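Input record, target 12 of the design panel.
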């Protein structure tokens, strides 16, 4: 793929149907998908629009959350990502991608819907300090852990 500033015909650069059918038990893992989804790992170039900011992104191990975590890091934000134990392999990949973008990555193992992790690792954001994003709609309860982004 050429640089993202060059106008391109998306019908010529994207995979074309039919895609192979595949099923995974929830939560699904990007590492098990064929073909591998494009979350911007190779194509997205940031421009510093989020320099000095921090983001907490749930579901950042795969899907839209993963794409957002990569984009935010490449735009200059430090990223904390919440994930479940069975998503460890995908979360490790995202941490590596965030660090390769020169940003700080904090992996938070646990379910943010549990009161202990929700009250202990998130706070009301100020416009100058953080963007809080939730991309996971429902997750099974898991034991939480806490890590500081600061």
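The sequence produced for target 12 reads:
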């Amino acid at each position: 793929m050429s640089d993202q500033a060059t106008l391109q015909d998306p019908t010529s650069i994207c995979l074309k149907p039919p895609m192979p059918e595949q099923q995974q038990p929830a939560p699904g893992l990007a590492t098990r998908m064929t073909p591998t989804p494009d979350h911007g790992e190779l194509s997205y170039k940031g421009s510093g629009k989020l320099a000095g900011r921090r983001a907490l992104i749930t579901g950042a191990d795969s899907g839209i959350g993963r794409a957002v975590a990569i984009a935010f890091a490449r735009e200059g934000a430090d990223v904390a990502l919440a994930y479940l134990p069975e998503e460890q392999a995908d979360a490790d990949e995202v941490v590596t991608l965030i660090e390769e973008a020169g940003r700080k990555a904090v992996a938070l193992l646990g379910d943010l819907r549990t009161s202990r992790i929700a009250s202990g690792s998130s706070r009301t954001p100020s416009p100058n300090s953080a963007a809080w994003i939730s991309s996971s709609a429902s997750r099974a309860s898991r034991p939480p852990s806490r890590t500081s982004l600061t």
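The radius of gyration is 16 Å.
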